[in-house]
Amino acid sequence: MNFIMIKWDIDNLRELDCLPSVLYLDDEDEDMVDKLSDAYGYCIKEYRILDKEDVLKCLADGILQNSFNKTFSGNYYTYLSDVQDESMDRFHYMLTENDKSEIFDLICQDFYLLDANWDEDDDEEYYDLMLGYGRINNGYEFDDGCKDEKERYDLRQNLLDDLRVKTPLVYDALNCSLTLPDGGIIENVLSKLQANKLYEDFLYDWIDVKYPL
Question: At what angle do helices 52-70 and 192-210 cross, to 10 degrees?
């Protein structure tokens, strides 16, 4: 299964306030492109086909970045009902069990993930992620005996903050592309949250070389 990504002509979007600047449809709705073109032909800038893997990778990266941003203990739960809502809101797509499994597999490939479980609580499934402090953004609760770890964490966070100022995020939402600080370009980046994940991965990779844990 693939997805159709429709990009609208921004200059003519006033009459289409109800539509996002980029609209995703699964390829079973391909006739919708013709219908939309007939109705708003002067407003469609272009459209192209995306692999479903791009959509699942976007969701997986979003889960990880949200976890890195929000945890203070290194442990964070993401309920699959929230993932499903995100998939429907952004891509109009109902996830299958295989999709959820593939998203989990993609999450498990992350360098800064220490452990991951796919569990259930009161009949609601969730991903339970344990994250290394070297990639957590908004603070970390260290025990009293972890002075050295806290110093390393603070150093890395200060470096990250400096790099964010010197080489800010450059994300083109309309073209779904991310320009990295070294000039490299990543295509098919489907959300700002995913862009932040890939951008910060790049910065942390640089920090890891200069100041390894």
Answer: 60
